[in-house]
Amino acid sequence: MAWIDLFIAGLFEVFWAAMMKLSHGFSKLGFSVATVVGMILSFYFLAKATKMLPISLSYPIWTGIGAVGSILVGAFVFKDTLPPATWIFIGFLLVGIIGIKVTSGH
């Protein structure tokens, strides 16, 4: 269950980052509120996950999910342009996240 909580925390990290973009510098109330709610939920699920998982695994995986997810949302939803070489490094991030999970013993 802790791994599910960690994954949900990462998804909420992606959510709040996207909402923050849509808030236009916190000038749009609805998106600003959604940003804060997403942050709270992301931290809540991260805290739940760290009850069972070491912080040395939880935090880098959480930030990795948030980083990769935010890149994907930026590219596919907000139409950010990424050079082809950037996709190689995104792949490295994914390999690192999966590698941490597989070798963790948890």
From TrEMBL:
<keyword id="KW-0812">Transmembrane</keyword>
<comment type="similarity">
    <text>Belongs to the drug/metabolite transporter (DMT) superfamily. Small multidrug resistance (SMR) (TC 2.A.7.1) family.</text>
</comment>
<keyword id="KW-1133">Transmembrane helix</keyword>
<keyword id="KW-1003">Cell membrane</keyword>
<dbReference type="Pfam" id="PF00893">
    <property type="entry name" value="Multi_Drug_Res"/>
</dbReference>
<protein>
    <submittedName>
        <fullName>QacE family quaternary ammonium compound efflux SMR transporter</fullName>
    </submittedName>
</protein>
<feature type="transmembrane region" description="Helical">
    <location>
        <begin position="84"/>
        <end position="103"/>
    </location>
</feature>
<dbReference type="InterPro" id="IPR037185">
    <property type="entry name" value="EmrE-like"/>
</dbReference>
<feature type="transmembrane region" description="Helical">
    <location>
        <begin position="29"/>
        <end position="47"/>
    </location>
</feature>
<keyword id="KW-0472">Membrane</keyword>
<keyword id="KW-0813">Transport</keyword>
<dbReference type="InterPro" id="IPR045324">
    <property type="entry name" value="Small_multidrug_res"/>
</dbReference>
<dbReference type="GO" id="GO:0022857">
    <property type="term" value="F:transmembrane transporter activity"/>
</dbReference>
<dbReference type="InterPro" id="IPR000390">
    <property type="entry name" value="Small_drug/metabolite_transptr"/>
</dbReference>
<feature type="transmembrane region" description="Helical">
    <location>
        <begin position="59"/>
        <end position="78"/>
    </location>
</feature>
<dbReference type="GO" id="GO:0005886">
    <property type="term" value="C:plasma membrane"/>
</dbReference>
